[in-house]
Amino acid sequence: MVILILGLVLFLGVHSVRIVADDWRTAKRAQLGEAKWKAAYSVLSLLGFILIVWGFGQARQQPVVLWTPPLAMRHVAGLLTAVAFILLTAKDIPRNGIKARVHHPMVLGVKVWALAHLLANGKLHDVVLFGSFLLWAILNFRAARRRDLAQGTVYPAGTTGATVTTVVAGLAGWAVFAFLLHGWLIGVRPF
Prior knowledge:
Elements: H1 2-14, H2 17-20, H3 22-32, H4 34-61, H5 72-90, H6 97-102, H7 105-120, H8 124-151, H9 160-186
Helix pairs in contact: 1-4, 1-8, 3-4, 5-7, 5-9, 7-8
């Protein structure tokens, strides 16, 4: 569990700099230059991610059961992760109505993804992993919305075509991951 927690601290810590020290981040990016900043950010993020995967794998070997979720929660989690995939997709498709409305769909998608997994899993390592991501996403979403308000950020209105494309692409990505890749990569078949 220590390696999982270390990975979370490193990965989420790097991704939290803008939440807790945006001015420092801006100054460091200017001092180091964009390329060096991105390189350091990427290396630390990758190291944190590797530690999360390794630590989570180790923690799964000796699980501590906190509760046993009802079977129905698997179906609720399936539905919520479909929504999360749509939100994650909305980040990359220009002029979709989802991004126009929520402004930060990727962070909202992480929130929904983490909540879905918390509902369907009751082991300590699941709560540590998904609870950490949920807390991070809540804080990040709030900070991003405050930055938008302070800067007067205006998001372009969405179009129907882009929104439909976003939903279809998100659902397609979800289906591929849920029915094929999740079992292969994670070792758990949700369906």
